[in-house]
Amino acid sequence: MQTTLDTSKLFPTLEGLQAIEVPQMIEQREFLCDGQLIEWQGDVTDVYSPIYYHDKGQWERIRLGSYPEMGAKDVSEVLIKAQKAYGLGQGLWPTMRLGERLGCVQAFLEKMQEKKQLIVSLLMWEIGKNRVESEAEFDRTVEYIHDTIDAVKQLDRDSGKLELSHGIYAQIRRGPLGVVLCMGPYNYPLNETFATLIPALIMGNVVIFRPARFGILLIRPLLEAFRDAFPAGVINIIYGDGAQTAGTLMQSGKIDVLAFIGSSRVANILKKQHPYSNRLRSVLGLDAKNPAIILPDADLEIAVSECINGALAFNGQRCTALKIIFVHRSIAAQFLQMFCQRVSLLKVGMPWEDDVTITPLPEPEKPAYLQQLVDDALAKGATIQNEQGGKHDRSVVYPTVLYPVNSQMRIYHEEQFGPLVPVLPFDDVQQPIDYIVESKYGQQVSIFSNNPDVIASLIDPLVNQVCRVNINTKCQRGPDIFPFNGRKDSAEGTLSVQDALRVFSIRTLVATRDTDANKALFTNILENRKSNFLSNDYLF
């Protein structure tokens, strides 16, 4: 089944583009390596916006620019420079005082903030994120960096004292792990990428960063900031096909940490390519199929509002999105009526428009995939509940509420990562619990109920299946001081402001026996500030 929207009323005309602030094309011909912007002489890949324009019946995607298509040999040379900068832990950056590293991060942050408007514009045009959410992503990233700086100062203060136990004095601090390969997701190409990249740098690691498949040009305005703020080789930025770039780096066995946010399928491929699995630390944010459970005594106003936002914010393209809704059969009809009424009020349009919610999807292949899921569900007994559901054209897919969904449908199992909302009824709450237990994902769940006894009875089994149980609220990542992780195929490692600092470092200590000679030795080193590690300096 396929119905089309009249997108001629959604997308701009060629003439209309003249009145819209389209970002200037970025023909990128450089990459960052060893503190230099190196001119690229090879092939390039064109970047197109998910936004089309039409002129005299012809449809075209807006071209935004291009970026280098680096290959295996190119990234191998970058790896050599990164290894040199780390120097097996003896390089300038890993041995530098923490305060000096923070000074580099703060210098970068100042330069980054100067580029806000351009980066926000590129977020809108590259991935179709609306203006409000694009500005929020930038601001949240800035706040995250500030919070990370504050957190590492506290961590340093806590580590600044000597501990005495069983006749042994020790100072315990955290040290870097080595060379980090950092790859972020296209849905939050700035925020979620920097949530791993910045703490990795702060803790003394050297980073090779490959931008996301979409949202790639928005990193270009920051290349000079990275170059100028950090010592040579500390941050290196590469471009190109994943198999040729990330695959080559992993196969070298010289990547110490894989920081990857994306699909578990790709993560598994990358990890298996590393020849020394015991030496590789992985920090992964992966797939999720977060359910909502609507119980008979739920406040439906709250449940509907939270589920709309949880399922359809940024077109449902969030790993924390609500991707399946279980509603008790006794209130299913009422819930669906209210839910579909609210869906019909969501504005479909272009990212720069006021109050727009549903915008073009950046993945060219995604509309066809979503249509397959809809067709499969309809063939197996579901119906489209909302008036405009099932309509799509080019990169715009209208929200589609499917009911009743069952376990024979693909949408029951697959993470749709788009504006499809599968809803299914249940009579016994054990049904959604079994779904979560049997699922290969284990990130979050949302429970909607006003009965404390029922909620309490669900909390205890569910906290052992997922890593966050939300009560009467949608699934979400923030606030960033809270741990963000997952069980099973949903994550490896924990990310929060504090946890990210720990996951990109390892506890290391200097120890000595409690003798007068050793105490005099330590005192001399501390008082004369002879060591960057063995130190009682405090950061304020």
List keywords for this structure.
540 residues; alpha/beta; 2 domains; seven-stranded mixed β-sheet; six-stranded mixed β-sheet; 18 helices; 23% strand
Protein model, in words:
The protein is an alpha/beta fold and 540 residues long. It has 2 domains: 30-285, Aldehyde Dehydrogenase, Chain A, domain 1 (3-Layer(aba) Sandwich), CATH 3.40.605.10; 290-480, 3-Layer(aba) Sandwich (Aldehyde Dehydrogenase, Chain A, domain 2). The chain is built from 18 helices and 27 strands. Helix 8 (223-229) links the parallel strand 9 (206-210) and strand 10 (235-237). Helix 4 packs antiparallel against helix 6 (131-158) and helix 5 (116-127) crosses helix 6 (131-158). The longest helix is centred in the N-terminal third of the chain and has 28 residues, at 131-158. The radius of gyration is 25 Å and the shape is globular. The relative contact order is 0.13. The model has no long low-confidence stretch (mean pLDDT 95).
